[in-house]
Design goal:
The chain is 78% helix and 0% strand. With 327 residues, the protein is an all-alpha fold. The N and C termini lie far apart (169 Å).
Length: 327
């Protein structure tokens, strides 16, 4: 009787143990329990769990039991996309900032425009002696009043641009020119200048009134306001540059450069060069582009002055020789 009871007990115990191991094996294999929801990096852990389950159940005695290790990260293939291009651009910008000295940038953004403002105001004051003499004599004489009207219209445009951009250098380098240009123009109108001077002054003022309405009341974006004011100022400046072009054409036809003032052209070239450097430093194409064109025009005038200086001297010598032969 005791032998039968002991046999039943051993059989039941063996059955319970085998059922528990089978349940554990099923759970570890992912059939039930928490391992079923494990994804991705747990694949090696699952393999180790299956190996332990097979070992416990005796399904595969020769299975090697391995320990779980962290899976190695796969290296991504290099690809060129917008983010990579942005990183390359940032790297080049950082290299440029490292190469460029901060002191040079400070000079280009403070000292250079300050010198440009002083030089521009000096250019505006240079015409005052001739205008004062005309006011005293009540006659224009050889004074050409057309540049005065262009000066007034040009300075009003850049005054507007400096106000919109909140740029003190641009504003104060044209404030005096605006006042003096208006004074010179009204003086010429009183002394009986051609009608074209009045048309240029009034037409430029009408254009600037329209630009002020658009930038002040119609456009809400600061960038669009800056673009509108800058384009208007550049348009007036290009019209201002058109007058020296006619002088250049006349010099080429007559091969006589006596009408070109060398010192005035040098001052214009220096002023344009200063503002070109400042515009490039602050990355403002509306400033450096027109001034670079002015530097090129001044260089062309200087080249003509040097090229036809010998021709003028030879012509004068021939005329003097002919006068001596006649006398």
């Amino acid at each position: 009787m005791k032998s039968i009871a002991l046999l039943i007990l051993v059989t039941c115990t063996s059955a319970l143990r085998r059922h528990r191991l089978e349940t554990t094996a099923a759970t570890l294999r992912g059939g039930e329990g928490r391992w079923r929801k494990v994804k991705g990096g747990a694949s090696s852990l699952r393999s180790s769990a299956r190996a332990w389950a097979d070992y416990l159940t005796g399904a595969n005695v020769t299975t090697n039991i391995t320990t779980w290790t962290r899976p190695k990260k796969k290296l991504k293939k290099p690809s060129v996309g917008p983010e990579d291009q942005y990183e390359v651009a940032e790297a080049f910008a950082e290299a440029a900032r490292a190469v460029t000295r901060p002191s040079l940038r400070v000079i280009a953004t403070t000292v250079v425009p300050a010198c440009g403002a002083v030089l521009a105001n000096g250019m505006f004051l240079a015409s005052w002696p001739a205008v004062a003499q005309a006011r005293t004599s009540k006659q224009l004489g050889a004074l050409n009043p057309l540049p005065f009207a262009f000066t007034f219209a040009n300075c009003v445009g850049w005054l507007h641009y400096g106000f919109v951009c909140r740029n003190h250098y641009v504003f104060w380098s044209n404030a005096l020119g605006c006042v003096l240009g208006l004074l010179y123009t009204t003086t010429a109108l009183k002394l009986g200048c051609p009608d074209v001077v009045e048309r240029v002054a009034v037409g430029g003022l009408v254009i600037h009134i329209g630009a002020a309405y658009v930038t002040g009341l119609r456009l809400a974006s600061p960038a669009k306001r800056k673009l509108c004011a800058g384009l208007v100022a550049n348009f007036i400046l290009l019209c201002y540059y058109a007058a020296p072009l006619s002088t250049v054409a006349a010099v080429v036809r007559s091969r006589d450069a006596s009408s070109i003032s060398g010192p005035l052209v040098l001052v214009n070239a220096g002023n344009g060069l200063l503002w070109t450097v400042y515009g490039a430093a602050v990355e403002d194409a509306l400033v450096w582009a027109p001034n670079l064109a002015g530097v090129a025009l001044a260089a062309a005038q200087l080249a003509l002055k040097l090229a036809f200086r010998g021709a003028r001297a030879s012509t004068t010598a021939v005329a003097a020789t002919a006068a001596k032969g006649v006398t």
